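User: I'm putting together notes for a lab meeting next week and I want to include a structural view of one of the chains we've been expressing. I don't have a solved structure, so I'd like a prediction I can at least talk through. The sequence is below, exactly as it appears in our construct file.
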Amino acid sequence: MNDTLPFTDLKSQYAALKDRIAQRMQAVLDHGQYIMGPEVKELEQRLAAFSGSKHCITVSSGTEALLIALMALDLAPGDEVITTPFTFAATAEMIVLAGAKPVFVDIEPDTCNIDASLIETKVTARTRAIMPVSLYGQVADMAEINAIAARHGLAVIEDAAQSFGATYQGARSGNLSTFGCTSFFPSKPLGCYGDGGAIFTSDEALAQACREIRVHGQSARYHHTRVGLGGRMDTLQCAVVLGKLERFDWELDRRRALGERYAALLRARVVDAGLALQLPVVRPDRDCVWAQYTVQVEQREAVQKALQARGIPTAVHYPKPLHLQPAYAQGAPYIGSLPRAEAAAQRVLSLPMSADLSEADQDLVVDALAATLRGLADDAAAPVAGRAGA
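Assistant: Thanks for the context. Below is the predicted structure for the 390-residue chain, given as C-alpha cells.
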C-alpha cells in the first residue's frame, strides 16, 4: 500500500501545469508590478466571463471576500445575517467582524447545506442578508433562498469558497445572487499558491463599493470615500490562477466523474454489502465539483484510525457546528437546538479528492473503507454471537 496517498494531490497538478505557471509568474517578475499588476485585471475579466457575472473583484482571500461584501451592504450594529452553522468559522466570523449578528438555520441531512425551507422563520425586522454556503462543492437551494430574500428585501451572499465552477439550474456558482464570494486557497477547486479570493456581482454600485473597500476605501488615490481595508490579491497569485485556468474545465469534468465513481463504488462495495455508510446526495437541478467528497459514518474516530493505518488520509469538515463554538454561541451553547447540524458534525468524514486522484488510488480508498467498516461491524457482532452460543 502506498503510504503517501495525498488527501489533495497538488503535486500532480503542478507537474501538469509547471511550464505554464512558470511563464505566468516570470512575466510578473519581469514587469515588477506586484500589486494590482495587469494580471489582476486579466484574471477578473476571465473569471467574470466564466461565471457569467458582470463584475469580478479579486481580493486577498475568500474570508476577505465575505467581509468586503458585507461591508458593501453598510450593515448597522444589531443587524442580522442568516446563515448555516455547518461551515468553516470564516462564514460567521466575517458577519461578526462586519458588526452584525449571525442567525443560524439548520441543514438538510443529506446535502449538509442550509435548509431553505427553514430560513423564513428566522427573518426579523433586523435581518439584512442571507449567507448560504455551497458546501463541499454543491450549491444550496438558491432559487428558494432568492425568493425569500426578494419577499423581505434582503441581500444574498453565496459563500462559494468550495464551489467555484459548479452549476445550479444552468447558472454558475458565484452568479446566483447579490454576491458570490469564492476562495483560491490552494486546495480549493481553483486554487493559487497562497491566499486569494474573489467577489462576483452584477450590481454596479455594489461592485464599485467592493473595489473601493479593498483599497482602503479609496475611490481615487488618497481620496477615501468609505472605510476600507487592505484586501488586494497579489499579482503573483493572480498569475498562478491564470496558469491553472488552462485546464480548469478538464479538472471540473474530472472532479464530477470521480464523484460519480466514488458513489458507484461505495454503493456497490459498501452500502449494498449492508455496511453502515451514508453517501452524499446531489440534487437533480445542480451538480457538485467535490471540493470534498464527504460521507457519513458511525464510530468516526475508529474509522479514521483504521484508514490511517492503511495509508488513507481523511479529514473532518466540520467537527463542531458554529452555534456550539464559544465565539459564536451567543451565550451558553445550546446542544440540541440545531440537531441536524449537530448529528452531521459527529458523522462526516472526507475522503481523498482532487482532479488528479487516480482511479487506482480511488479503488484503494474504497476497498480500505469497506474493509474497515466490515471489521467494525464484525467486532460489534462478535459479543452477541458469543452469548447466543453460550
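A couple of points you could mention at the meeting. The mean pLDDT is 96. The longest helix spans residues 359-388.

User: Perfect, that's what I needed.
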